[in-house]
Write a structure and sequence with these properties.
alpha+beta; 7-stranded mixed β-sheet; 6-stranded antiparallel β-sheet; 32 helices; 30 strands
Length: 846
Amino acid sequence: MIKKTFKIKGMHCAGCVSTIERVLLKTSGVHFASANFASESALVEYNEAVATEADLARAVDSAGYKLEVDKMDAVMKSGAGAETVSFKALGMDSPHCAMIVAGALKKMPGVKNVDADFSNTRVKVVFDPTISDEAKISKAISDAGYKPIKEEGRLEEILDKEKLTLKKEVTILKLKLGLGGILAVLIFLGSFPEWFGFMPDVLRNYWTLFLLTTPVQFWVGWQFYSGLKLLLKYRTADMNTLIAIGTLSAYFYSAAVTVFPEFFARGGMAPVVYFDTSAVIVVLILLGRYFEVLMKGRASEAIKKLIGLQPKTAKVLRDGKEVEIPMEEVVVGDLIVVRPGEKIPVDGEVTEGDSEVDESAVTGESMPVHKRIGDLVVGSTINKFGTFTLRATKIGKDTVLARIIKLVEEAQGSKAPIQRLADVTASYFVPAMAVIALTTFAVWLYFGPAPAFSFALINFVAVLIIACPCALGLATPMAIMVSSGSAATRGILIKDAASLEIANKINAIILDKTGTLTQGKPQLTDIIAFSNGNKAEIFRVAASLEQRSEHPLAAAILEYAASLGGRSSHPLDTAISEEALREKINLYKLEDFKAISGKGLRGVLRIDSRTVEAYLGNRQLMADLGLDIALYETEIRKLEEAGKTLMILAIDKKIIGALAVADVVKREAKSAIAALQKNNIEVWMMTGDNARTAQAIAREVGIKNIMSEVMPEEKSEKVRALQKQGLVVAMVGDGINDAPALSQADIGIAMGEGTDIAMESANITLMRGNLTLIPEVINISRRTMRIIRQNLFWAFFYNSAFIPVAAGVLYPFFGILLNPIFAAIAMAASSISVVLNSLRLKRVRV
């Protein structure tokens, strides 16, 4: 199965979405299809062995639309006749902005395909180099009102270039705001001599006001004229178009009054100028843009922090010598030396030495993790203490960090279902506002009181200025961007916006047992000494017997033996009290070792000066030896009923003790499940174990609903069965055999300690595999959806309430008109309020 986005031509309304999705889903091999009217595209998940891109195109063509093969991929694969270039478009920070840039570029000759991603301010263009070139594409982006930066070199270099450009832009904005603000205040004071009688006569002169307003209009407000370029050159309009037309209308009318006062002084009415309206509006809107730039930088800083984590060089062993080389030159298999305090350059396996590694940047876990020979380490994490050597296993875009960056970028660029309404509304907004403004002007001109032209002009400008598709366009994506970025810093990777929305609706969750609820590997849990024996001695004998065994149960005992002495906490700690077990032990010499298939093992041990024959195994081995376990049945059965595997120890044909091994439940499992149940979520445990073992684990963690003895191929069917009951199901797993169930579930959640296949099949990945992150995912989703609904409510309310006021609807009844200056304040406030409200999601709640 692969997922791919295709451009669709011929989509005219939201109703086209369901038609396209229906014909795609009827195509053999298509597993999932989601069309997006706002971006004129469709995301399709299909089986390449069954369906081809040509099949998808034919299906869409049959419905009257045209599906384009992804030219981005086509160019990369064939390189035939076309080139691809990628630009950062500074200022392209809303869906409406992306639509404007894409619209301008698509109208250029030679441009074959455009992908505008506003969340990452990125534009990818496929073009014919014989017709167009990068300079023309860059100019088109500039003409649309955005600052293009070509993406070339390393991510860090692109980021540095973007940062410098943004810093320069902010500096210019500050200068314009400073000078523009001073001039606007003088213009405002001079425009109302009846209010500010202390102002000198020279400031009240129309020619003075004209001279003061001109630099504000054409220098301070120069960036707004990109909207006129769009209108004239590309026959499209944006927010800048409305601002430019509105302020220029006020400016040129006032200039005409200044130059030809006699012409406007008809009917005994003194002509009035609106230089204050023009100048103050330009400065206020620019001030709003300035604050937006600062706050949006905060909203996207998560992805910038992730990119900034990547080290630039690595110390590689070449011909036995340590050489520092750029990251681009590191290849898989290189031996890399990492010293204390250094960042680990790439993903790899420790081959020499050991250390404590701070993985908090990737997993969100604050405690350093001990790494020894054979352990895997993640690139960009920090080596705290020891020096070690690693063998590079993954480099470049294959590293964990690179995949995290890709996932976060995709999540921030994806659309939640709730966003469709806002996107559709915003796409029609600017033309609709232009029509409303012209209608307002005409109605006031012909039916308004004297001076009708002045009333018409003021209300025309007010409608153009107050209209704000930005607030609507930003309502959902800004919240998604902040939320997914904030979640990533806590070790929660959300693949797309739709998953963030659906997680809010989960009412049933299935937890795979092994590796999800449990640690995923056997651990020693109990040591039992029969007849008041010595636990430390029993463990020493058992560990000595297991030292040549390769069985997983032997590994559990030997791992515990190796960890004794100065180790961290272990599940066994609460089960034993003998100090002897707290210190490192010396194993007895083992001779004549023999593994007994399916039953256990035997060996001869040299204990002190004597030689003894010892056996360690199950009930069947003891029966074969003729040993009666009836005296110890109660203790043995109790452990077996708890789902543990028991190994009975016998020396010289006498039973002296037993050891229990189990896949231990994660410490946080019980509290995490309690939190889910508190949220009225039905919790299920799925396992291939028998019913007795499953019930023991379920009792321990507080789960009442159990699916036991489930074969791997049955897991997705179990998920489907719950979905048929009308439940919104989340599946949590970590193994390859969980992948089908993760894909089938409404939300698939993969544990980061699991397999790559599980993570690719899931919608959400928990990087540190901590179960308490599951309730946190639901909490993040609920908070995000609450913020989105608030944003949409205020954006819709703002536009529906204030546009009629700006048009003068209240004037006949209450004599109320909206001054364009206050309209500018309200317009800036609407976008800023959406951004500020979304930034509340950055606050971490535990």
